[in-house]
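Attaching the record inline, Q. Sequence:
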Amino acid sequence: MSGVSDIPPPPGGRHPDPPPPPPPNLSPPPGYAAYDNAPTSGQLSRVGGLAKAATILVAVVGATALIAAVLSAGSRDAARDYREGRISETEFLESYLVVGMLGLVQLAATIAAFVITVILMYRLAANHRALGRSGTWGPGWAIGGWFLPPLVLYVIPFLMFRELWKAADPDPRTEGDRWKQNPVGAIVPIWWVLYGLVPVALIAFQGADGMGAGGFASTTDALAETVEEQFALTLFGGAATAAAAIAFIVMIRQLATRHRQLTGES
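Structure, as predicted:
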């Protein structure tokens, strides 16, 4: 009979169910390091973008400080001429205009870099806490540590960066509290010396030099005196700021790399 299959029907009069689909591939992507205490990815914050922004802003700070220090040589000569009556007040102020504008750019970049750095430190500490690597300096210290004594020495931020460096160890063999025994990269204390200790020495020298300077009634006269008599300190301060900026950039890039390897951030 045409149109009728010669294949006999299965027992029971129904066709067998299709085979189940293969199980999903749950293996981690290449390069991902798994941790027994690692939370889900939704609990971790990304740090790559913040680290990049912080390094760019700090690079602006260092570059403007160094350029302003170099240009201050011309301002020193103009300050001397103004104090000796060879040029007018307007001519001196015009010669100092570029240096002053660079100072404003440096100040704005410094404030922005500080805000980004605080957020970055907070995220690093919060991620470490989510991974079970809580230490002495929790996320809140990323904010308060910059404003507590001894202030300009920035001891608490230095200690927090030390701990963040240790906790960011991507070695999967670092379990429990073993990360606390990790060594700290040399770049961390180098940054602190350049950023915390050297500026304090500069402030001390500037204060001693300022006490010995004669008083002037005019604000422009006081500016001219400072530009001329503290030229050497200005040069040294610009070079020190640039060196501290370089150290910070190296430290943040290395710390962010370690942390991203730890969390699996692409």
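DSSP finds seven helices and no strands in the chain. Residues 89-130 form the longest helix (42 residues).

More tomorrow.
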